[in-house]
Amino acid sequence: MKDEVLRRFAEGRVWAAGRAPYLASALFALRPVVLEPRVDEVSGELVADAEFRAFPADTRWQVYLDPGTALNTSAEEVGWWLLHHIGHLVRRHAARAPVSSPHWAQAADAEVNDDLEAGAPAGVVSPRALGLPEGRMAEEYLSLIEVLDAAHRRGGRPLAELIDCGSASDGVERPYEDSGAGEGLDEVERELLELAIAREIENRAAGRSPVGGGWRRWAGERLRPAVDWRAQLGAVVRRGVRQAAGRVDFSYRRPARRPGVNGVVLPAMVAPAPEIVLVVDTSGSIPPGTLARFLAEITALVTRAGGPARRFRVICCDLHAHPVQTVRRAEEVELTGGGGTDLREGIAAAVALRPRPDLIVVLTDGQTPWPEHRPPVPVLVGLTGTEPPPSWARTVSLPT
């Protein structure tokens, strides 16, 4: 039986390589893992498990095959799902997934299936099927799908069927993935494979061979990446933390090790823990999914810079600054607000906090009035739009 399952997988892989020859190296890098079969207790026949209808994959490029499902699925459909999972894997959807987003898997499917709508199995999510624009990123589809699903649920039914693609799509490990533990590709192998795929796509596109538009865009970005905004943002945050930590002072809370003259107790030099405040533009012009993603990135950087036990303060701001929130993780932040934007209010509220922050990090699309004069605290702007902030702010452009 296992041999029959592996034969069906091989047939599907050959079909997929014929449809998308520029992904042949990726297809043959996939490692099949055959699961324990489900058997009908009365007839003894194999039973297909609906949970595995998509032949889910993990982040190590392993594909999990339920025997009953595989042997009852055509080679063409198996091949289609293999191409689908390669889309998740090379686009790093597992790493991009926001925390606790029930619609992320569907948004990731929409990004992948933009090039795979022809011959798609019934029930899969695609931009055309949902009436959404084509050629967008999963983060953009996420906010649109959240709105659509809310409208559909008011009508008594969800937007689309949930299909499990495995941890390759959302980074959440499944119990069945233990069966392939320790196997698959490591990070270096994945990097080399992705570069080889991207070069093959560009070579075929240059030779006028048919290549999907989404794959051409991915290959261009993979071979000629823009500035790594995560590295740039991290460098600026760390620089601000070092500057704050460098402001040493004397304190009697910790006496100096060197004894003073005539028994006088001397103060020790101490470096205060940097105080960082986040001001988040919650006016509604930034999609919630994008906002949550960047907020998670920024709070992770702040946590690493200030230490895992450090708390930091967050001020949500639309036309007014909302009450300050003291949190440790991004998921603890309650995003409040909506309507217009005036970040002067948020920055002023941050400056007025006690103790005064050493660094203010602002997350915005830039569509806001700014203070006329440089605030007394350094300001770092994570910008998702094109409207530049004043020259006194340090700016890091974030991808939209």
Looking at the chains present, what oligomeric state does this protein adopt? single chain
The count of DSSP E runs of length 2 or more, i.e. the number of strands, is 10
Give the percentage of residues in beta strands: 5-15%
What is the residue-mean pLDDT, rounded to a whole number?
83
Taking the alpha carbons of the first and last residues, their distance comes to 48 Å
Biggest sheet layout: 6 strands, mixed
Number of helical elements: 14
Helix-strand pattern: HHEEHHHHHHHHHHEEEHEEHEEE
Number of domains: 2
- The poorly predicted ranges are none
Account of the protein in words:
The longest helix is centred in the middle third of the chain and has 20 residues, at 187-206. The chain has 14 helices and 10 strands. By secondary structure, the chain is of the alpha/beta class. The protein folds into 2 domains: 2-223, no CATH class; 229-397, Rossmann fold. It has a 6-stranded mixed beta sheet, sandwiched between helices. Strands 1-2 form a two-stranded parallel sheet. The chain starts with a helix and ends with a strand. The chain is elongated and about 85 Å long. Helix content is 40%, strand content 12%.
Q: How would you concisely characterize the structure shown here?
A:
With 400 residues, the protein is an alpha/beta fold. It is built from 14 helices and 10 strands.
Set down the secondary structure blueprint:
Elements: H1 2-19, H2 24-27, E1 31-34, E2 62-65, H3 67-71, H4 75-90, H5 93-96, H6 104-113, H7 127-130, H8 138-154, H9 167-170, H10 187-206, H11 213-223, H12 229-245, E3 249-255, E4 267-270, E5 276-281, H13 288-306, E6 312-317, E7 325-327, H14 343-351, E8 359-364, E9 379-383, E10 394-397
Parallel strand pairs: 1-2, 5-6, 5-8, 8-9, 9-10
Antiparallel strand pairs: 3-4, 6-7
Helix pairs in contact: 1-4, 4-6, 6-8, 8-13, 10-11, 12-13
